[in-house]
């Protein structure tokens, strides 16, 4: 009898140790709202994402907090608009002095306090700094395998992007070090081998999940893919296999990585105790034309405050907890941190958060706590403030501006030649009836629209009165000596920073 009681007690302790759910956050790069097959693209081959959408909760109205990489990733990991953390204007470069401030609390840091094992694989793009001081291992992640910035931020014209020897399309950035691959805080490759990169990432992710499950430890995996950012690349299994050319091959490889993660969760026996969340950092880079992704029926793309720049595909999956279906509730990457805190029992950081717990949306098919979404431009500033606001189904543009990142779109409003224009009264759109933001609602035609604009203005004033801009990390400047080099102190830089 005593032995039976001890056995039951031991079993219960083991259950308690693993009762906290696993969390897997999968982030695509520059993937447009209209790119996955499950979001309507007729020739994308994304069977794993399609399955995830069929078995999970697909969001129709999910937003990033920025329309370019670094600020959008900062918002996702901190639950705060990047204005607060100083991740503006623009993005980080290999020589950037700044990075995501170490006093910001990331999802990884929250979960480490709850005993989670944490790992990040892929694209960081939140700063490198002096001796790698801003790398993920200093931001709450136990392990890191990846590139500290965007894979077009280094010379790539002599690198192979598709086997057997297809050179990368485009020259990318010049005059900086070749792209390094890091394991934790050490460079293991320079330059990167693009055709073998994703299989290495997938293997890392698989082993991390299996090892954490074997130890009966809760885990957080942040898989931030480089796909489908330009220049596209893929390994042997996917090169030339899609109907969409190089971008389609890259998207197929990304989709396969989703499958690898799902299979690892099943093999580890933790699929039913893991929240899997997929989304993209920002809209597609339309200036790349057919190699730049697709925003679907949304207007413009990357770099703009039209919905094509910030409205993203998103899916949440947790078998037995999340009922399959589609939600039209308003949600954002800002909401991921509060949601993860809620399901893990973690305490929220004692700072101003801009996110809301999505538990009612995910688990009860309920309403969102979010009523508004605020859109800042790439060059955000205190002087101009918010460019656009979504309030319920309505969106008001106080300012509009094009972007070079959305150049070549048939819509000239998206182009870099479209200057900052102030709108008094703001341009008002009904995003349920007109998600393409084509038809301006006139207060002269229907006086109730004036009341809606007044409500939006009240929300904007209230929001901006509580917005405190952090010191700009980008304006701290550049120092070429900070660029990561596999041969510290070698000459001449940057040419010598490579394996021989």
Automatic annotation (TrEMBL):
Keywords: Calcium, Glycoprotein, Hydrolase, Metal-binding, Signal. GO terms for molecular function: arylsulfatase activity; metal ion binding. Residues 1-16 form the signal peptide. Its cofactor is Ca(2+). InterPro entries: Alkaline_phosphatase_core_sf, Sulfatase, Sulfatase_CS, Sulfatase_N. Residues 23-345 form the Sulfatase N-terminal domain. PANTHER family: ARYLSULFATASE A (PTHR42693:SF11), ARYLSULFATASE FAMILY MEMBER (PTHR42693). Belongs to the sulfatase family. This is Sulfatase N-terminal domain-containing protein. It comes from Chiloscyllium punctatum.
């Amino acid at each position: 009898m005593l032995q039976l009681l001890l056995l039951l007690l031991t079993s219960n302790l083991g259950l308690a140790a693993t009762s906290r759910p696993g969390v897997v956050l999968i982030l695509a790069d520059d993937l447009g709202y209209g790119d996955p097959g499950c979001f309507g693209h007729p020739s994308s081959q994304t069977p794993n994402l399609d399955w995830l959408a069929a078995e999970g909760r697909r969001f129709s109205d999910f937003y990033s907090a920025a329309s370019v990489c670094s600020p959008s990733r900062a918002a996702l990991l901190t639950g705060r608009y990047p204005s607060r953390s100083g991740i503006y204007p623009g993005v980080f470069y290999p020589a950037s002095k700044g990075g995501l401030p170490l006093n910001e609390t990331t999802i990884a840091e929250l979960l480490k306090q709850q005993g989670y094992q944490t790992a990040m694989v892929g694209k960081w793009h939140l700063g490198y700094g002096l001796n790698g001081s801003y790398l993920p291992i200093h931001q709450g992640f136990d392990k890191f395998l990846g590139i500290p910035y965007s894979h077009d931020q280094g010379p790539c014209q002599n690198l192979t992007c598709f086997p057997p020897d297809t050179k990368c399309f485009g020259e990318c950035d010049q005059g900086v070090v070749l792209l390094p691959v890091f394991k934790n805080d050490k460079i293991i490759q320079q330059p990167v081998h693009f055709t073998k990169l994703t299989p290495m990432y997938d293997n890392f992710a698989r082993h991390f999940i299996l090892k954490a499950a074997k130890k009966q430890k809760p885990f957080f995996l942040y898989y931030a893919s480089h796909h489908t950012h330009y220049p596209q690349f893929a390994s042997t299994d996917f090169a030339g296999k899609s109907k969409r050319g190089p971008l389609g091959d890259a998207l197929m490889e990304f989709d396969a990585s989703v499958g690898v993660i799902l299979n690892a969760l099943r093999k580890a026996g933790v699929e039913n105790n893991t929240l899997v969340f997929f989304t993209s950092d920002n809209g597609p880079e339309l200036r790349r034309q057919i190699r730049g992704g697709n925003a679907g029926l949304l207007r413009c793309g990357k770099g703009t405050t039209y919905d094509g720049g910030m409205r993203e595909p998103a899916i949440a999956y947790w078998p037995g907890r999340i009922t399959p279906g589609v939600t039209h509730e308003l949600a954002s990457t800002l909401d991921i941190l509060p949601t993860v805190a809620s399901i893990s029992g973690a305490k929220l950081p004692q700072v101003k958060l801009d996110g809301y717990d999505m538990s009612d949306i995910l688990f009860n098919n309920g309403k969102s706590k979010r009523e508004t979404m605020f859109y800042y431009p790439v060059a955000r500033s205190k002087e101009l403030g918010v460019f656009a606001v979504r309030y319920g189904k309505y969106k008001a543009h106080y300012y509009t501006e094009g972007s070079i990142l959305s150049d070549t779109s048939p819509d000239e409003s998206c182009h870099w030649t479209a200057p900052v224009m102030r709108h008094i009264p703001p341009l008002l759109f009904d995003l349920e009836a007109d998600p393409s933001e084509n038809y301006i609602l006139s207060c002269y035609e229907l006086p109730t629209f004036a009341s809606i604009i007044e409500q939006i203005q009240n929300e904007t004033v209230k929001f901006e009165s509580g917005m405190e801009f952090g010191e700009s990390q980008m304006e701290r400047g550049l120092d070429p000596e900070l660029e990561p080099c596999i041969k510290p102190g070698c000459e001449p830089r940057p040419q010598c920073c490579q394996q021989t």
